[in-house]
Amino acid sequence: MNNSDKFLWGASTSGFQAEGGYNEDGKGLSTTDVRKVPSGVADTKVASDHYHHYKEDILLMKELGLKAYRFAFCWARIMPDGHNINEKGLSFYEDIINICLENDIEPIPTLYHFEMPQALVDEFGGWKSRKCIDAFVEYARICFERFKGKIKHWVTINEQLIATAASDLNGNHEEDKFIQTKNVYQMSYNQSIAEKKAFKLLREIDIDAEIGVVTAVQNVYPKTSAPKDVLAAMDAEEMMMYMLLDMSVFGRYSPRVMEILKENDYLPQMDECDQDVLSYKPDFIGINYYSSLCVQENKTKDINYKLPPFFRSREFEVVNNAHIEKTEWMSNGIDPLGLRTIIYKIYNRYHLPIIITENGMAYSDELIDGRVHDDYRIDYISKHIKEVLIAKEEGYPVFGYCPWSFIDVVSSHQGFAKRYGLVYVDRTDTDIKECKRYKKDSFYWYQNTIKTNGNQLLLSNKN
Ligand code: BG6
């Protein structure tokens, strides 16, 4: 097996979902702090209290055997008002990075994971404005300069798809749904230009470091083999995934995407000067994969504005896939083979190294006598890792796998009822308790998988 020791067995978290300490040591308010959370659902104020437990958490990572920790900075901790630096915020991340390095864990920071200073939304509307490009690039510069020589892999933006679509996370609160949707495409374009400027900047500041994008990949199946359903599936992949990645890698949208954007009057404004950075590309692509999608032709050709942005389409509509098993929290189903398929698709189009930056199983875990028997999660992760390793063995350059999430974190929209962690954080939505950590059964399973480099998974039948 061509499964070298350098494979980054990692795990992921994000700043606003793990840290808490939302107003401590000079941190500014984040978009994620001010959004309205339904009553009875945990918010970001304490989250998993990683802000106060990070040393203990990194020791747990060491015990697990992690080779990499993929996490995210909170922009508002580093730049509370979006302009000035908060030294204590930078020191916090410096400490995380240093302790990881001392323990032979490669820190992989993401600059933007659904969170930004609310001050920048108040000042100019956040990503709707091109001013946000400059603010982001300045933030990136501060981070690149400060952590030069310590970071081998940077991530710019986590899941542009969700980062632009989730209005509660980015402040795109237009009442008019057409304008709100048009804004989403402008925000996406602005984020792409900000990323390109960050690629360029990192090459100037730290030539040895690499930088990548993280994509919420969409492996879309047609409901039937009817040609119109097949075209609908291709269009869904174009509009929900390739649109974003083509811009990241090739610096352009495909003719099909351009046509659909123009037809709907969604085409973002592009500035002449952007030409200067369009040729900068990422060094790698991060894949966040939870499930696949299934679509059929949208026979009405109307846009359903009740759906979230990106699902609003004249070309396709999302339908149930009867072939995929579903659970309470995995409503799109569980489809391990879809992960291998999407690795093929992404590599065949972009020819860039790939890291799995998120993949995980949500469940309302129960802590009983200090243990969490999450065999359902072990089943999910083992089947997905196996598909990754098969692709790797076939020669696809996948250099790491990071399950979501290392510890339980507050879900992006569903609090602590929905957990993904390898480590249980003892709190509920309404009772913060002490956020004590407990290793789940999946922790021990993953520890053994790392130790054996996943070999036991490949020994079982590939099909
Ligand atoms: C990914 C995000 O989209 O999915 C994470 O990068 C998120 O931040 C994860 O937590 C799982 O989604 P959710 O909504 O179940 O928390």
Q: What does the model show?
A:
The structure is a single chain. The protein is α/β, with parallel strands linked by helices. The chain has a single domain (8-462), classed as TIM Barrel. The chain is 41% helix and 14% strand. It is built from 16 helices and 13 strands. The strands form three sheets. The chain has an eight-stranded parallel β-barrel with strand order 1-2-3-4-5-7-10-11, surrounded by six helices. A three-stranded mixed β-sheet has the order 6-8-9, with helices on one face. A two-stranded antiparallel ribbon has the order 12-13. Helix 13 (336-350) packs parallel to helix 14. The mean pLDDT is 96.
Write the layout of secondary structure elements.
Blueprint: E1 8-12, H1 15-18, H2 31-34, H3 50-64, E2 68-72, H4 75-78, H5 87-102, E3 106-112, H6 118-124, H7 131-146, E4 153-158, H8 160-165, H9 167-170, H10 177-205, E5 210-216, E6 220-222, H11 227-250, H12 255-263, E7 284-288, E8 293-297, E9 316-318, H13 336-350, E10 354-358, H14 375-394, E11 398-401, E12 423-426, E13 436-439, H15 441-451, H16 455-459
The chain binds 6-O-phosphono-beta-D-glucopyranose (BG6).
